[in-house]
Amino acid sequence: MKTTVMAVGRIRPPFEAAEAHYLKLLKQRQKVGVVEVKDDQSMLRRLSPDSHVVALDLGGRAMDSIAWSAWLDQRRLAARDVTILIGGPSGLPVEAISRSDESISLGPQTLAHQLARIVLLEQLFRAGKILAGEKYHL
Fold this sequence. Notes:
Elements: E1 2-8, H1 15-26, E2 31-37, H2 40-46, E3 52-62, H3 65-78, E4 82-86, H4 94-99, E5 102-105, H5 113-131
Parallel strand pairs: 1-2, 1-4, 3-4, 3-5
């Protein structure tokens, strides 16, 4: 299973260092890549029909770290690639949310879209540590 984070826009300082850090940590446990797209339409065109598509959306299901690990375990058992969508400053278009198999929320607060990328990567890393039976408080 490969997880792709598909995000509108390019990562910029100071977030790019944090993204590189988490991608390096994730490399030890799972295949995670980031695809940056120019705009909403580019995102919609690049979605694979074979991938389990997840919209990061305020109206989605909120999960704690244990729930993230259970979610990740379910995705691994399904043995299907996962694409997690992060919109730009205006969020995801309705078409992307409609195309998604599920929606997940990072919480009720508003996050800068670049910061949402970091929070998502950190949760994937933490979920992997929990599944491996390791301590996950750094």
